[in-house]
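Lecture 7, part 2: worked example. A protein chain together with fe (ii) ion.
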Amino acid sequence: MKTLLGKKEEQFRPINTDFLKAGGTEVFDIYQKTSAFGKTEFVKFASSHPSHQEKVRKLIDSGECTEFFIRQEDLIKYYHQATEQLRIMISDPAIPLLKKTQKLYDVSKDIMKNFFEYSDSEEVLKSSEEVMALTDQCLSEGKARFDTISKVINKDYLIYTHSLNVGLYCLVYGINDKMSATDIRSLGLGGMLHDIGKAQIDSAILDKKGPLTKEEFDIVKIHPRLGQEIMESMQCYATNVVCMASQHHENYKGNGYPDGLVGKEITLFARISKIMDVYDGLTTHRPYKKSVAPFEALKIMKNQMMDELDPKILGKFVRYMGPGS
Ligand SMILES: [Fe+2]
Ligand SMILES: [Fe+2]
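Predicted complex, written out as structure tokens:
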């Protein structure tokens, strides 16, 4: 199992300078990375206080420095600032939906990356909820279809982009299925968090470039239970959201894990996340496995995976993926 990282270099995180340009209400220190004699150091450059903004802006505009960092403990403040600016951006009718979706994707990706790669605090994870709410607002208002998000998502399989992709697919499924606003948001959030149990599994196993041994697979198989435990301990997620983490490897006709549930014993949201999980797994590529095209993925799911997937939900998903749905 992973433990929290405590090395000096890892206490600093890169940030997106776009969110520094317009300022904000949060104040945190900004650092630059320097290397001398093979030693990396982080030097305080400015704060995000309005009086320092000119200095930051000038340096960004000059193109001399594009990389800025903040201390790990300021991540929450940074995400609040990013969220403030995302909120302003999505309410601007002049900005195209695709551009808004791309920005939201980038911030969410960053949050999930910090959580998975650095075992960041659950506080950071809660920022994802805020960004998912904005994404929901943006995609619902824009009546987004699957082709909108397929243009912004990462096609390389990484645990944090996979999590986000599943969240977005779930969100768009909910929008297309005309679910209530609460359900759409829960579905998107649960999709994004479905694999959080993997944050506690050794990355040497998760990143292995090849098939897993039985022992390794047995370890991976505990991630639904670990995810459930993490979410329950946070005491802020509804049961249908937690079940997406605990039940997304159950199979519709049984023999899945961890509980071997069958049919509607598996909650609706978990059955939906299973389909989005499989779809993203098939359409993204890994060093040892090529991705397949969307149409091919749907064919595989329909012809070879019917024991695992809810046929009714799969039918709707195929329909929503089609043109003009
Ligand atoms: Fe999983
Ligand atoms: Fe997954």
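Strands lie at 12-15, 29-36, 39-47, 68-71. Residues 97-118 form the longest helix (22 residues). Keep this in mind for problem set question 3.
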